[in-house]
Amino acid sequence: MGNGPDTTRRKIVQLLSGSALLAGPVAGAQANIVLSGFRMVQQENVMLHFDLSFAAGNADLFTLTEPDRLVIDLPNTSKAESIQTEQFSQGAVKGIRFGSHGPEKLRVVVDLNRPVSASFRFVPRQGGQRLIVDLGVKGNLELAQYKARVEEPASLRNVIVAIDAGHGGKDPGAVGQRATREKDITLKVARRLFNRLKDQDGITPVMIRNKDTYVGLRERIRIARTKHADLFVSLHADAFKRKAAKGSSVYTLSLKGATSEAASWLAQKENEADELFGNVALDGLSQDLKQTLLDLAQNSTLEASLEAGADVLTELKKIGAVHKPNVEQANFGVLKSPDIPSFLVETAFISNLQEERKLNSPRFQEQLAIAIQKGVTGYLNKRAPEGTYLHASTG
Ligand SMILES: [Zn+2]
């Protein structure tokens, strides 16, 4: 008794409208919230993520039976056209339908293959909120679960992505058969990547160089550190004496490079090692223990670098040829930050006449920027650092 759709719905509405905790501007009757993103995430349960352009302040969830459905009504909300309505099917979810219902209500119908006991919460994201619906699959609805939990937005920050345009100034990098200079291409792609990332919620891109200037490799690492970068993306264009060589590649630091770097940090860079471990007092520690700490930091950085690099390579495969099918590892000086996941993209071969032409085309430059942006975003959706909007909003 009392668990029929209508009763359930009433209870949920009551609980939600009684909550004054929601952060941000609560949408009034005139507000037009845009659902700008939707994802289905398989964790322990299936989770649905709805990205809303304002603090929604309200949502209305109820279940229906025969067939089992979960209905989510988002008041004053419209759906961005970019949201695909293709078949989503995972776990208890058979499919998802979006429909406008009344003048200013977006109705999401989740078709289910078994009953669920959904719970949900709002989390802040830059410029709005994310509604996360967790489709637990058991028993009766536990209304106690229906409490919108809002974290303190003030304590959250953006993820900082450092964009490193390779070469510059007196160092032209590789030069193509038609005299295209690597340093010019890397800066153009870097600026495009910057423009894309700066429009993205939860991300602040920073440029290591934004002019035709020479910046040494160590200096690039130092700039990334002073900007508190969480991720470091270095852009290059490949060259090889065999003119037919073509395609994109992604590199991360080799373990050998990392190990020798760790040793040199310990030998000569005590100051930076101190900075790296922040308030951990290194002075009293044995050399062995310092080594272990540095190894730990660097192991997890290498792992994260590989993951980020792989996500970018996956996207690059969609826009053209890749030179090697997997992320490669090499001893690149610019990738040697012990604590900032870093990878290097060889966008294409500037030594290949056809690819030199592509590298000069604004269209291909933009395709590269989009692919790298998608890869970076995919990685950050899984591995954003704690304390960031992206970490909070991806649960
Ligand atoms: Zn280069």
Pick out its properties:
9 helices, Aminopeptidase, single chain, Immunoglobulin-like, 395 residues, alpha/beta, 6-stranded mixed β-sheet, disordered N terminus, binds zinc ion
Molecular structure report:
This protein is α/β, with parallel strands linked by helices. The chain is built from 9 helices and 15 strands. The protein has 2 domains: 5-152, Immunoglobulin-like; 159-393, Zn-dependent exopeptidases (Aminopeptidase), CATH 3.40.630.40. The protein has helices at 5-17, 182-198, 217-226, 255-268, 270-276, 287-319, 353-360, 362-383, 389-393; strands spanning 33-42, 46-52, 60-64, 69-75, 77-79, 93-100, 105-112, 117-125, 128-136, 159-165, 203-207, 231-238, 249-253, 328-330, 342-349. The strands form 3 sheets. It has a 6-stranded mixed β-sheet. A 5-stranded mixed β-sheet has the order 5-1-2-9-8. Strand 6 (93-100) and strand 7 form a beta hairpin. It is globular and about 65 Å long. The chain binds zinc ion.
CATH homologous superfamily title of the largest domain: Zn-dependent exopeptidases
Count of the separate structural domains: 2
Shape: globular
SSE arrangement, N to C: HEEEEEEEEEEHEHEEHHHEEHHH
CATH C-level category of the largest domain: Alpha Beta
Level of helix content? 25-40%
Low-confidence stretches: 1-31, 138-153, 269-275, 277-281
> Biggest β-sheet: count, sense, barrel?
6 strands, mixed
Level-2 CATH architecture of the largest domain? 3-Layer(aba) Sandwich
First-residue to last-residue Cα separation? 34 Å
Write down the Rg: 25 Å
Mean pLDDT: 78
Question: What is the CATH topology assignment of the largest domain?
Answer: Aminopeptidase
Q: What ligand molecules are bound, each kind once?
A: zinc ion
Strand order of the largest sheet: 11-10-12-15-13-14
Summed up, the helix count is 9
Count of DSSP strands: 15
By helix and strand content, what is the structural category?
alpha/beta
